[in-house]
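Q&A log
Question type: sequence-to-structure
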Amino acid sequence: MTKPKSQDRSNVIWGFFSSVKLTIVVLIILAIVSILGTLVPQEQGAAEFARRLNPAMLRIFTSLDLFDMYHAIWFRVLIGCLAMNLIICSIDRFRATWKRFSAKPEPDRTKPFDHLPSQQSFLAQGTPEETVNKVNRLLKSRYKKIRKKEVGANRFFYGERGSHSHFGVYLVHLSVLLILTGSLVGSFFGFDAYVNILEGEQIDSVMLRKTMKPLKLAFHVRCDKFTVDFYENGSPKEYRSDLSFLVKGKKVDKKSLLVNHPVEFLGITFYQANYGSVPGKTVHLKVSRSTAEPTVTDMKVEAGKSIALPGGDGKFKVIDVRGDIMKMGQAALISVQPNQGNPVDFWVFKQGEMARKMLPGPMLKSPKFDPSAFKPYTFFLDGLETKFYTGLQVNRDPGVSIVWIGCFFMIAGLFVTFFLSHKRIWVHLLKTDQGVEIRAAGTANKNPVGLQRELEHLINDLKGLFGKKG
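Response status: OK
Response body:
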């Protein structure tokens, strides 16, 4: 009778995924991929590397997602293949493991006593009943599920410990599956983003690094205060952001964020990444009026707000400010609206002399760069009030807790696998004319040295029961 084709196919698939060779191949590929992922910059760090590639290589790298390989479909398929391999290998070999675990040898087995060393037996004085009771109490205190059997003048005892060590490898398999599951959960449902928050302002969305699209948060984050300390050479020593977290307009938490000391709120982690400054809305100007009696007026104005000219010839306002325009320093764009006529717009630089040296000739002749474009006034920029912003890296990885659980199981599984063994102990009592001969023997699935120490301790303790020195 022939097997159905569907059953043959299932057997082929099962055999493929239960193969140890598949495990080795997948692990080698993952090792190579991990090395490649270290050499090839990933995500935001890939731009500089990509610029050094020729167009053909760039297309290959892009098509294979080598700049974001840990989120690529082929990488997830590899992870899934390894997970399937572990699951099927575990199921395939579980029956044999369970059989070894549940096997209960007969207490009266004689094979373990073949070729028994002389130091594993001794002669005890006393009645057989007393000897049996003493040995029974000692074995019960040391081993679980003591089994006894009486065969004529022989008494046999059987005990074991460490039977669960057979399942250590399954703990390791489970830990690997949990770690893989955690990484996939983080890959599918987590995100990596960034955001800049001005001091005193709040945001409710962040920018995803991969897609450069905004992601709305379920809460607001406000930067209450930003402080930075510097070393004597001017390099930053420490910078700190005091953040408030608001839900539906109400502040529910407040935390201080430092470099290498992230904070977490509602499963989202914030890291202090960088900082900077931007021009504020307050502008310090000097306005000179060239008349029969020249005047110079110091003014502190707010960007976007109309202010009357000192001579009453109209109004002006600052419509744009720049912290460093074309590497010429701070600048403000002034728009003057005279009482009659069209508005006049022009840029004013804080470092006017340096700006004039850097500007090309045609731009110097343009009224757009003439601070005296509206006669008889000349505008001078004393400075801009700047505001700090804090640059935050924002991450959410819901798989982290699963990975940590996997690490715990990994340690437990490795401990059980390498440091514990299944020891089976037999003790034989034989009544003779000189007394009761006591013999001890055992087997172990691994660690024969540990078994030998176990038997030595057992013999010494048995001798101690009958007043004999070890």
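Response note: The domain at 187-277+389-408 is CATH 2.60.98 (Tick-borne Encephalitis virus Glycoprotein; domain 1).
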